[in-house]
Amino acid sequence: MSSATVAPVAADHVSPECRRSCLSRHRLNHDLRHSFATSSLIAWYRAGVDVQERLPLLSAYLGHVGPSTTYWYLSAVPELLTLAGQRAQAAQKETR
User: Fold this and answer.
1) Would you say residue 19 lies in a domain?
2) Residue 17 belongs to what domain range?
3) How many whole angstroms separate alpha carbon 62 and alpha carbon 64?
4) Which ranges constitute the DSSP H helices of 13-70?
5) How many domains does the chain have?
6) Domain-located, residue 74
7) Taking Cα atoms as reference points, which of 38, 42, 46, 43 lies closest to residue 72?
8) DSSP secondary structure code for residue 86 in this structure
9) What are the backbone angles phi and psi of residue 61, rounded to the nearest 5°?
10) Tens digit of each residue's pLDDT (9 = 90 or more) over 33-66
11) Smallest Cα–Cα separation from 91: which of 48, 41, 56?
12) Contact 40, 6 (CB under 8 A)
């Protein structure tokens, strides 16, 4: 699987404010990893794919052993929480 199927380029999703506040190279790289992980999930929710199925791919792409270490890179941004909540509600309605 190519990186293009994982998520859009993370740098496109970093706000100018974040870029200005990231004073060190290490901090910028760390912020980009968080942004990349979060934007990947948002893209997957929007596309209607199984996020839990794809999470191991994201983990491998980031060089993690598994999803449990990737969860730390996910930011609870409102858009992600909204999409995840909508998915959970739809799944709950299907089981009734």
Assistant:
1) yes
2) 9-94
3) 6
4) 16-21, 25-47, 51-62, 67-70
5) 1
6) yes
7) 38
8) H
9) -60, -35
10) 888 888 999 999 999 999 999 999 999 988 888 8
11) 48
12) yes
CB 31 within 8 Å of CB 18: yes
Look up the pTM and report it. Answer: 0.65
Pair of tokens at residue 14? 């970093």
Check residue 23 and report its DSSP letter: -
Work out the number of other CB atoms within 10 angstroms of the CB of residue 45. Answer: 17
Distance (Å, rounded) from C-alpha 58 to C-alpha 91? 23
Report the C-alpha gap between 36 and 58 in whole angstroms.
9
Question: Residue 80 corresponds to which tokens in the numbers above?
Answer: 């992600």
Output the six-digit token pair for 64.
């993690």
Q: Smallest Cα–Cα separation from 73: which of 52, 53, 58?
A: 58
Distances (CA, A) of 76 to 38, 48, 52, 66, 83: 8, 19, 16, 20, 11
